[in-house]
Amino acid sequence: MRVFASLDEYSEAKGEHLGYGDWHEITQDEINLFADATGDHQWIHIDLEKAKAGPFGAPVAHGYLTLSLIPLLVKDIYTIEGLKMGVNYGLNKVRFPSPVVVGSRVRAGAEILDVVDFPPGKQAVVKVTVEIDGNPKPGCVAETVVLFVA
User: Fold this and answer.
1) For the chain, which terminus, N or C, has the lower number of CB atoms within 10 Å?
2) Which residue from 102, 105, 92, 101 is spatially nearest to 141, judged by alpha carbons?
3) The predicted structure's pLDDT at residue 114
4) SS3 37
5) Domain named MaoC-like: which ranges (predicted)?
6) How many angstroms separate the CA atoms of 87 and 138, rounded?
7) What is d(CA 30, CA 28) in angstroms, rounded to the nearest whole number?
8) How much is the pTM?
9) Which residues, 6 or more positions from 7, have their beta carbon under 8 angstroms from its beta carbon?
10) Which superfamily is assigned to 2-25+62-149 in CATH?
11) CB–CB of 143/113 below 8 Å?
């Protein structure tokens, strides 16, 4: 865990890769809950038998499930002391290069691409790469935009 003493110290790390978070196993329960929450019940996610015979050989996580796990996957990479809040501001670019098969372990790496003044704080663009254990291609690469207020 990288600890920044202030938002200014974080800003000085622009361009740095901050490391990797802990591994997280993707379960069928997570996939089913996400399907229920979003109404996306496509067979490649929730029909175990059909998915086994499908193109991926098993059920796969929704791309948006993988994307939505970014806060969980990044929380152990870095922290900024003295923040009042950090708010998701948006995404610049998102790609899903490889499917995330149920039972896979994923983790995130984070790189600060940019930090600019943005009242009432600073806006950061952080490239998050969600790696899949044993797969050379990531499950998700996203440029997240975050507003930090100290």
Assistant:
1) N
2) 92
3) 98
4) helix
5) 13-129
6) 25
7) 5
8) 0.95
9) 80, 82, 83, 121, 122, 148, 150
10) Hotdog Thioesterase (3.10.129.10)
11) yes
Please tell me what DSSP assigns to residue 137. Answer: S
pLDDT digits 0-9 by tens, 7-25: 999 999 999 999 999 999 9
Residue 78: closest CA among 150, 4, 17, 6: 4
pLDDT tens by residue, 25-51: 999 999 999 999 999 999 999 999 999
Structure tokens at 86: 């950090």
Going from N- to C-terminal start, the domains of the chain cover: 2-25+62-149
Neighbours of 16 (CB within 10 A): 13
